[in-house]
Amino acid sequence: MHWQTRRFRIDLSRPRVMGIVNVTPDSFSDGGRHDDTRAGIAHCERLVAEGADLLDIGGESTRPGAPRVDATSEWTRIADVLAAALTLGVPVSVDTYKPEVMRRALDAGADIVNDVQALQLPGALQAVAGSGAGVCLMHMRGEPASMMDLAQYDDVVADVAAFLRGRADAARAAGIPAECIALDPGYGFAKTAQHNLRLLAGQRALAALGRPLLVGWSRKRTLGEITGRAVGERLPASLAAALRAVSAGAHVLRVHDVAATVDALKVWAAVDAATIRH
Ligand code: HH2
After folding, report:
1. What residue ranges define each of the domains in the chain, with the CATH number in brackets?
2. Which residues line ligand 1 (CB under 6 A)?
C-alpha cells in the first residue's frame, strides 16, 4: 500500500506517524504573530527529530466551541510555518476545510490536504484536483459547534464506510487520482464514546475500502471518559488506542506525542520481525 502525495510516494508497509502542529492561539485573533510562528517552526523541527514521518499543520481548532477563523487569518497563521516545514524532508499536510486556504497552501507547495469535511465545501474538490497533492477525507457530520447533535447512527461502521466510499468516489470523479486518497473515520467527530469504540472495533471494514487509513485518537475525549484522565494525562490511553487502530488496519497515526508513538511502533515492528523469522 502507498499514498501518493506531491513530493513523496509514502510507503505504508509499516505504520507511519503524523505529528500534529497546531498554530492556533485561542486567546487572540491576530494570527501569524512572530512568537507563534517561531514556536510552530520549532515544534515542526522537534517532531521530525523525534521521528515523525509526516507533519500536519493546522490554523483553526476543530474542537467543539473553538472560535471560527476566516481564511485570511488562518492562512496568515500557518504560511511561515508551512514554508519552514517544507524544508524538513518529510511530507507536509495542511489541516483545513477551507478551499481558499487549500489553494494557498498548495501554491506554497504543501504535499497533502487534510480535510475534516472531506472536500464537501463548494470549491474544495476543485482546489485539490490537478495539484498532485495527497488528500485525507475524514468522516464527520455538521460543524464542530453542532456536531454532537448529529451523533445518531443505525450502524456506525456501515454509515461511516458508506460516507467515505461516497467521498472517495466524488474525489475521483473530480479528477483526484485514487492513489492520492486516504480515508479517516473521524474519531471524536459527531460520535459518542460508544460510537468511537464501536468504530474502532469494526475498523477493518474501513481498511477494506482499499485506501490508506489515517486515524486520530491522540488525547481525545473518549479516552478521558474511559480513564478519567485530563487531556494532558492521556498519553498511555492514546498509545493503547493507536496500537489497537494499527491492529485494525490503520496506516497513519495522527498524534501529538511523536516520540512515544514511535517507540510503541518500534516494539510492534520488532515483534513482527521475530514472527516472520520463526
Ligand atoms: N482530529 C482533529 C483535527 N484534525 N484530522 C484528521 N484527519 N483526523 C482527526 O482525527 C483529526 C483531524 C482534532 O481536532 P483539534 O481540535 O484541531 O485538535 P488537535 O489538532 O490538537 O488534535
Report:
1. 2-7+13-277 (3.20.20.20)
2. 20, 22, 58, 61-63, 95, 114, 116, 136, 138, 184, 186-187, 214, 216, 254
